[in-house]
Amino acid sequence: MKAIRKISKILSYLLTATLLTPMISALPVSSATPEGTNIDYTFSGKNADDSGYAQGTVTLSSDTDGTYGLYWADNSKALEGYYEIDELTIADGKSAVFEFGDHTAIPAGATKLIAVSDKSDLSVSGADAVYSIPTNKQLNFGSGELLYTFNSYSDVHIDVGNYYVNAEKNWAQALKFAVDKGTDFIVSSGDMVTNASGPESEWLIYEKVLAESDYVNPVWESDGNHDMRSGVSSGLTSFVRAPGTDNTIANYDANKPYYYITEQSTGDIFIFMALESDSNPSSCDEFSQEQMQWLTSLLDTTEQGLIFILLNILR
Q1: pTM, 2 dp
Q2: At a CB cut-off of 8 Å and minimum separation 6, what does 169 contact?
Q3: Is 131 helix (H, G, I), strand (E, B) or coil?
């Protein structure tokens, strides 16, 4: 009888445990936010699932009020040659938000997004918060060596007036970035100057900043509406005689504002279109018939390599 009562007691315990198990499983699991500083990054837009697209919302939360710098980083430290993304300030325990807009990019080689309060230490291990970029969002070069590198700039807008007050500083920073990245050449899609009053003024400042920089590789430009603003004839002449096509002596001699260059190691072609039909173009249909025939012939006779077309459109 004792053995039977003992077995009954054990079965009772087992039955009670069995009945309690689903109840325990249904109880809410604690999801307390870990202490410290944290980064949350929510990707958005039509390319939210595609590699290299940065569009989305970064939310920085912290138990400690202060100002934090936001940086792209690899697995060890902030990426070299890239500036701080932004400064985020935490006050009264409230979070801070930064928005990456449409068509912004995650740099190649970036695997982390870090927030640091001490900018003398930009290492991942020293960061206050680290966000690991999902593998499918990372932009990787692959295993092969790069064939060539170039930077694409637009709207430098050197200005002798007071509208684009930081233009010279921004141009100098862009050139420093090219130096830091070891860029082979720079291409621009126009509006290097603002009022196009001649090569002796804004163009001279544009070239002076270039001459004072450590950048020594080629710069090729397409003209924009501001580059020819003083009138079609005088504007295009200023463009050709300033930087523009003086990089290719044949086009300079021909006094043509449109031209192309060939990347020597690959045969890739960079085509630089020129606005010609109006001193203040407002649509994409501002190219002469002669230029369009030139472009058609060039495209028809190009048999190898990639083709890049650079132009400036005022909307």
Answers
A1: 0.59
A2: none
A3: strand
Residues 236-249, mean pLDDT to the nearest whole number: 69
Which tokens in the block code for residue 86?
A: 């932004």
What is the DSSP annotation of 65-89? -EEEEEEEE-SSBBPTT----EEEE
How would you label 12-32 residue by residue, b for 16+ Cβ within 10 Å and e otherwise?
Answer: eeeeeeeeeeeeeeeeeeeee
- Count CB neighbours of 187 within 10 A: 19
**pLDDT score at 111:** 96
Whole-angstrom distance, CA of residue 10 vs CA of residue 3: 11
83 within 8 A of 180, measured Cβ to Cβ: no
Q: How far lies 124's CA from each of 35, 79, 111, 312, 315, in Å?
A: 18, 11, 11, 40, 42
Residue 214 contacts residue 173 (beta carbons within 8 Å): no
Section 92-112 average pLDDT: 92
How many helices (H) and strands (E) in the chain? 6, 13
Name every residue whose Cβ is closer than 8 Å to that of residue 20 and which is 6 or more positions away in sequence. Answer: none
Residue 39 phi, psi (nearest 5)? -115, 130
Closest CA to 235 of 193, 205, 198, 266: 198
**Dihedrals φ, ψ of 240, to 5°?**
-65, -40
- Check residue 30 and give its pLDDT: 28
Over the range 241-256, which residues count as b (16 or more CB within 10 Å of their CB) and which as e?
Answer: ebbbbebbeebeeeeb
Give the torsion through C-alpha atoms of 158, 159, 163, 164, to 10 deg.
20
Which segment, 18-27, 55-64, 300-309, is predicted with the most confidence on average? 55-64
- Type of residue found at 112: K
User: Is the sign of the CA dihedral 62, 64, 70, 76 positive or negative?
Assistant: negative
CA distances (Å), origin 166, targets 157, 158, 172: 9, 9, 10
Identify the pLDDT of residue 280. 54
